[in-house]
Each structure stands twice: as structure tokens, then as C-alpha cells.
């Protein structure tokens, strides 16, 4: 017997949503029945381009009319709490883009709303779903590196992001809340919870309001040290955007992710090269394909969660710990101190 398709809707038809829409509308067993944007022209255009029947300007009206199995929220962060709380009252699975929240209070309220409603709340944290990182995680989990003692995740480029995402130049809390969250999610995914965190931030490009570079140093409960660093003002040729490079070391070996998506596994038996390049989707193009492929993989996982076949990776509750690291990173940078996460509390704004 063929299972009934999952019925989904998407809220927020801006720059990044084309990736969501391309992935959903090509996924077997999923039917997107409605899209919504405050800007009617954007909603209409998305519906027309992707063959979706319903186009709305009010999320509540769309949810009442469509009765979806899942809601995909692809708006910017200031709308997340209202939309997640609304969506949890209407659907059993709710997906929210990162940054999940700007404050722990908002994040905690969304997690509580999902728990009250018995809904799955998944954060669109697609970096851990990138092909290279799922390959690295499998090797680490197989024990190929032994006991892990060090890792670095690095995202440095000079690409002009401000053309597609002009809001990035305006926000006061920029790269930690934009890319830092992805890198901290990776650090927790690979090395576990964080005991202590130190951070420096830099504002390099005069056109931006917030920090466009940061470096964090974290000690994890299992004993590993990690470094996450990011810059949107690095001169490199070829420019690595939008790739993350990484290295992980354990007592039996090291694993290095290079800028060309190859992995080198160094063990006492020698060095082995592994091709971890993502496919370019039929609707995609380099250099975006690493991101596009990860959206396909993340959303396939979210559909599996909606069918009851998997636990959210990551859930809203899990992502609160990543958010705490991002907010604590600003506090650590401002105070010039190392923060013990068990003692850290959000400074009320
Ligand atoms: N995971 C990733 O790799 C990745 C990459 C880029 C962007 N993002 C995230 O995706 C989110 C969206 O980014 P973007 O660049 O597409 O932003 P955008 O500003 O281009 O689009 C957001 C859209 O949401 C709409 N919107 C806002 N509030 C709404 C509401 N209440 N109801 C209906 N529509 C509403 C806006 O009108 C706008 O069209 C951001 O949080 C960003 O950080 C994630």
C-alpha cells in the first residue's frame, strides 16, 4: 500500500526559500499545498514557479485552510516565536530556520509550545547534514580516530553576501548568530556539550554594523578542545565560499576536510583520500551546491521525522544549547573572559 503523501506548507518566500521549495517539490511522498509571505507578490511568485495551489499573506489563514502535516518556517528570526507558536497549534511537525531565536526566553517558549502541543520541533540546521560532515561523523563514530582531543571548524571568505542578504549588514549581532550557530552545532554534534568558552570578535568591513569575524575556543565535557572561526572579510583565491573546512584529531588518527570537499584520513597505516563532494542538484549550481545538497538531505530527514521514523536532528530543545553558546560567546568577547557554561545565564535585554 502506498502511504498518503505528507501535506506541507512553507512560510517566508525570500532569498533562501527557493532551496526549500526546490527540495520539497521534488521529494517523493511530499505535497506542498501552500506558501505564505507578508509580501503577496513573493507568495504568488513562489506558488506559480513551483506549481503550488495555495498562496497566502497570512500564516494563520493558510494553516486554517490547508491543515498541513508539517509547516516549514523560512522567515528571518524576529518572526520565529510568533510563527512557531502558531504552527505548533496546527501541525504535528514544525521546522524553523536558524537562527532559531535571538534570546533564550524566546527559544524556551517555542520549545514549551511544541511540548504542550505534542509537536516535533526541528531546527533547520543543515551544516551537520552536509555530505562531508555526515561522512566525517560516520568515521568518528566507527572509532577510526580513537579518542578525540581536538577539532576545528573554519568558515572564512570574502564573498559579497550583502547582495542576497542585505539584512546581514544591518544586524548588530552578525556572524556568530549567522554562521557561528552552524559551527557550534557541528562542535556539539562531534565533541559533545561545552564546559568552557572564550571568544574574540572583530568588525573588519566598514559597511557592516556587527562583528564580521569571530574566533571561539571551547573545552568539551569529553575532554576535546575545539576552535570555531569565521570571517566574511578574508582575501583568498579561489574563495572558499560557502564551504566550511575542518580538522579533527584523535589518539588513533586525524581527519581533514579540504576546500575541494576531499577528506584525508591519517592513521598509523598511512593517509587515505576520500571524496566527499556533494552532488550538484538538477536545479542547483556551484558554488551553492554544498548548501543545496544539504537542504535536500536535511528536509528528507524532516519528512522522516514527520512520518514518525526519526528523531529531530536537531530538535528545538537541542538547539537551545547551541543558542546558549552563541549568546555566551558575545558575553565572553565583551568581558574578555572564559565562561563556564554551567554558570552562564542570559543577560536580560
Ligand atoms: N541554513 C542556511 O544555510 C541558511 C542560509 C541562508 C539563510 N538562512 C536563514 O533563512 C532565514 C531567511 O533568510 P532569507 O535570506 O531568505 O530572508 P529574506 O528576508 O530574503 O526572506 C524572508 C521572507 O519572510 C517573509 N516574512 C517575514 N515575516 C513573515 C510572516 N510573519 N509571515 C509571512 N512571511 C513573513 C518576508 O516578507 C521575506 O520575504 C534567515 O533566518 C536566515 O538566517 C539559512
What features would you highlight for this structure?
single chain, 349 residues, alpha/beta, Rossmann fold, Dihydrodipicolinate Reductase, domain 2, 2 domains, nine-stranded mixed beta sheet, six-stranded parallel beta sheet, 10 helices, 15 strands, binds nicotinamide-adenine-dinucleotide
Total domains, how many? Answer: 2
CATH architect. name of the largest domain:
2-Layer Sandwich
- Count, helices: 10
Bound molecules: nicotinamide-adenine-dinucleotide
CATH topology of the largest domain, anyone? Dihydrodipicolinate Reductase, domain 2
Low confidence ranges: none
Q: Calculate the terminal CA-CA distance, rounded to whole Å.
A: 54 Å
Strand order of the largest sheet: 14-13-12-11-7-10-9-8-15
CATH class of the largest domain: Alpha Beta
Q: Which overall shape is indicated by the principal axes computed on the Cα atoms?
A: globular
Structural class: alpha/beta
Can you walk me through this structure?
This protein has two domains: 6-124, Rossmann fold; 128-277 and 320-340, Dihydrodipicolinate Reductase, domain 2. Helix 4 (80-88) links the parallel strand 4 and strand 5. By secondary structure, the chain is an alpha/beta fold. 35% of the residues lie in helices and 25% in strands. The structure holds nicotinamide-adenine-dinucleotide.
Draw up the topology in text.
Layout: E1 6-11, H1 17-25, E2 30-36, H2 40-50, E3 54-56, H3 59-66, E4 70-73, H4 80-88, E5 93-97, H5 104-117, E6 120-124, H6 131-141, E7 148-156, H7 167-170, H8 175-191, E8 194-202, E9 213-220, E10 225-231, E11 245-250, E12 253-257, E13 262-267, E14 270-275, H9 289-306, H10 316-335, E15 339-340
Parallel strand pairs: 1-2, 1-4, 2-3, 4-5, 5-6, 7-10
Antiparallel strand pairs: 7-11, 8-9, 8-15, 9-10, 11-12, 12-13, 13-14
Bound molecules: nicotinamide-adenine-dinucleotide (NAD).
Amino acid at each position: 500500500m502506498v502511504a498518503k503523501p505528507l501535506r506541507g506548507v512553507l512560510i517566508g518566500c525570500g532569498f533562501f526559500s527557493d532551496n526549500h521549495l526546490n527540495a520539497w517539490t521534488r521529494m517523493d511522498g511530499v505535497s506542498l499545498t501552500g506558501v505564505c509571505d507578508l509580501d503577496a507578490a513573493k507568495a504568488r511568485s513562489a506558488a506559480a514557479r513551483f506549481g503550488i495551489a495555495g498562496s497566502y499573506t497570512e500564516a494563520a489563514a493558510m494553516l486554517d485552510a490547508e491543515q498541513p502535516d508539517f509547516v516549514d518556517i523560512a522567515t528571518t528570526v524576529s518572526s520565529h516565536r510568533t510563527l512557531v507558536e502558531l504552527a505548533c497549534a496546527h501541525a504535528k511537525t514544525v521546522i524553523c530556520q536558524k537562527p532559531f531565536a535571538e534570546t533564550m526566553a524566546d527559544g524556551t517558549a517555542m520549545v514549551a509550545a511544541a511540548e504542550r502541543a505534542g509537536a516535533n520541533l526541528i531546527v533547520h540546521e543543515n551544516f551537520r547534514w552536509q555530505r562531508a560532515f555526515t561522512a566525517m561523523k560516520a568515521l568518528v563514530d566507527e572509532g577510526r580516530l580513537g579518542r578525540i582531543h581536538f577539532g576545528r571548524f573554519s568558515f572564512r571568505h570574502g564573498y559579497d553576501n550583502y547582495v542576497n542578504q542585505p539584512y546581514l549588514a544591518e544586524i548588530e549581532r552578525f556572524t556568530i548568530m549567522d554562521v557561528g550557530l552552524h559551527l557550534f552545532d557541528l562542535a556539539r554534534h562531534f565533541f559533545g556539550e561545552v564546559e568552557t568558552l572564550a571568544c574574540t570578535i572583530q568588525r573588519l568591513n566598514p559597511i557592516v554594523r556587527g562583528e564580521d569575524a569571530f574566533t571561539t575556543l571551547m573545552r568539551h565535557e569529553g575532554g576535546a578542545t575545539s576552535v570555531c572561526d569565521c570571517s566574511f572579510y578574508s582575501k583568498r583565491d579561489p574563495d572558499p565560499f560557502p564551504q566550511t573546512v575542518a580538522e579533527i584529531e584523535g589518539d588513533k588518527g586525524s581527519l581533514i576536510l579540504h576546500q575541494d570537499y576531499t577528506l584525508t584520513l591519517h592513521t598509523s597505516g598511512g593517509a587515505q583520500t576520500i571524496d566527499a563532494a556533494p552532488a550538484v542538484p538538477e536545479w542547483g549550481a556551484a558554488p551553492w551546491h554544498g548548501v543545496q545538497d544539504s537542504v535536500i538531505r536535511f528536509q528528507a530527514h524532516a519528512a522522516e521525522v514527520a512520518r514518525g521514523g526519526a528523531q529531530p536532528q536537531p530538535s528545538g530543545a537541542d538547539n537551545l544549547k547551541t543558542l546558549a553558546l552563541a549568546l555566551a560567546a558575545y558575553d565572553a568577547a565583551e568581558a574578555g573572559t572564559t565562561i563556564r557554561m554551567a554558570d552562564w545565564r542570559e543577560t536580560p535585554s
